[in-house]
Batch of 3 targets.
Target 1
Amino acid sequence: MKKPVVDYRELRLSNINEPRFRHLKLLLGWVGYFVLYFLTENFIPRERCTPIHCRLDDLIPFNEYFAIAYCFWYVLLFFSLLYFLLYDTERFADLQTYIIVTQVVAMACYIIFPSRQDLRPEEFVRDNFFTHVMAFIYDFDTSTGVCPSLHVAYSLGIASVWRKKPDAHAAWKIFVIIAACFICVSICFVKQHSAVDAFAALPVCLLAEGIVYWKTYWKPRLQKRQTA
């Protein structure tokens, strides 16, 4: 069994600032996110939110089977963070920083420009396991605070970090990229987001990509091309 690169059994509050542990402080970003999520969900009334809609939304039918890809997002996010936390703390810091950047921008958008979507079906045509899953998701996840989509932003961030991991198997990288693409598409088919929300996440991802990887990845490659 692969051995973790850090022995977290030695973690104490007194040594959290040591180089081997200080990446854990990035997890505080989730605390800030959930606080803001609670505030925006409970103190911004739905009536103040602008409906997000485009013509493409009307062309995309509801399909409950895309719940597989939509829910796999939770698995991929948790697995990626846990794997990097145990076996590659540098990639953990990259991914968590990427997530924090997208969270900050998205929450700012939700507060400054409250948004909602009115795309969910009033009733399901079919009655099966996947429609039950979507009914459960609709119950606990409101249709406000949708633009840009964090489902898309996190997925592209996960794919970006895995793609840049040199010792990751090529087949795994391909799988993650394909999974991320299906997740991004699934948000429209399960009517959790408008296509506008997906496209709005792209510049947010570019910002996060630049902040996380400009100096260590993109700038060296750009300089190499210019001197070639």
Target 2
Amino acid sequence: MAILEVKHICKAFEHTEVLKDISFSLEEGQALSIIGSSGSGKTTLLRCLNFLERPDSGIIRVCGETLFDGGSPASVQESELRKKRLHFGLVFQSFNLFPQYTALGNVMLAKELLAKEQPDYKARKKEIHGQIQEQAEMLLKQMGLAERMNNYPHQLSGGQCQRVAIARALALKPDILCFDEPTSALDPELTGEVLKVMKELAEQNTTMIIVTHEMAFARDVASHVIFMDDGYILEQGTPERVFEHSHEERTKQFLSRFTQG
């Protein structure tokens, strides 16, 4: 069974349709790359999956659970939205780290806030804090940041900040890890650092959705590729199918930009 099912998602801002009848599925352990020109709807799609934006219609299911059904547009409390978001870990293109916290503090923060909602938190505060810190330290070591845990974001490079952001997203053990153009703000050397971590996650069968302009990465690492254009999914399939045997002229035109010269 698919870990993620997206059916007929539409989203408009005022009179502008941004997502138009988006449907796809994702199996556990797959890495899905979403490619397309700026303004094609890629980021809005990720924000709808994470409930940072509410779709206008359609269905979103994760692990068989219906998280959104446009046919039943009941109001949703913020506490319910938080639970839905826990299925997804989102890594932003601009890091979005809290400057007042160290790398370790950034990775621990969300889990500590959730822990405070547990009825036994006060009685087990020291124990719970220790467990959260131990996990956060392990994740930062996995990201190659063992020596940088106590540094603040302004003391880190862009690549290091993005690796902290990846560790933070992993800390809540999401079903699906989502990346929104995670290397767009980085220079080529730092881009390589982040892509290396993402490739390792893919090799560990982490279920991922990656919005990216790194075509070589999308082709070599993804198990499935979606090409979006003007709010539609114009083409989707295996990397070989999309990159080497595109059916749509618009897809071919887009990909030609990355092969010229």
Target 3
Amino acid sequence: MIYFGRIKILKKIIDWATEKATKKIAESDKLKKATLLGVYLFVAIPLPGTGAWMGSLIANFLDLEPKKAVPVIVLGVFTAGVVMLGLTAAANGGINYLFNHA
């Protein structure tokens, strides 16, 4: 963020987007809940760059309270772990099936 802040046009865009998003979220309780759901879904997707660290950064960027953001992020990490466990078990079972029935 600091890197992009050095370029004036990017700094203006980042400041504008941050201010607008923060204002909209602060005005609506429904949007706050949707924001927490969005952070959860972002963290729960097991892709590179979508983990707890980035989810924490987004929560901080959106001025979410740590009391509300931390449990959502922990649940997202747990969900991502379960998804990866399921995918690994399915792949392992499929590979075993292929080797045993070939």
